[in-house]
């Protein structure tokens, strides 16, 4: 293709004529930027759309997790007020010593 391009440039063919002949011979794959229509349109849109959709999905998932996350009271046996007062009193004695 490069040799053919060099030959056409040396002959003095216009850029547009060379481009059209390459498109006719090899198809639109020879273009650096294929036209944005048909399947090529999807090739332009998908790389932008997929990350945006993924970001939205993560945002929704985190939002739903936050809604579900409610503080639960600590579990364990019920402790009487008398026992708590005794424990506080003993810890105060130990910290004073």
Please render the helix and strand layout as text.
Layout: H1 2-11, H2 15-26, H3 39-68, H4 81-96
Distance between the termini: 93 Å
Mean pLDDT: 85
Integer-rounded radius of gyration: 37 Å
Helix coverage percent of residues? over 70%
Major sheet description = none
Beta-strand segment tally: 0
Give the overall shape, derived from the CA principal axes: rod-shaped
Uncertain spans: none
SSE run: HHHH
Would you tell me the structural class of the helices and strands? Answer: mainly alpha
List the total number of helices.
4
Note down, in words, how this protein is organized.
There is one protein chain. By secondary structure, the protein is mainly α. It has a domain at 1-55. Helix content is 70%, strand content 0%. The protein is built from 4 helices and no strands.
Concise structural overview:
By secondary structure, this protein is an all-alpha fold. Helices cover 70% and strands 0% of the residues. The chain is rod-shaped and about 105 Å long.
Write out key terms for the chains shown.
4 helices; 0% strand; 97 residues; mainly alpha
């Amino acid at each position: 293709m490069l040799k053919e391009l060099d030959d056409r440039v040396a002959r003095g063919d216009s850029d547009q004529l060379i481009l059209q002949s390459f498109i006719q011979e090899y198809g639109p794959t020879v273009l650096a930027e294929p036209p944005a229509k048909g399947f090529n349109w999807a090739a332009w849109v998908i790389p932008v759309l997929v990350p945006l959709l993924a970001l939205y999905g993560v945002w929704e998932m985190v939002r739903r997790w936050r809604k579900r996350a409610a503080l639960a009271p600590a579990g364990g046996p019920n402790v009487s007020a008398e026992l708590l007062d005794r424990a506080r009193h003993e810890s105060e004695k130990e910290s004073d010593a």
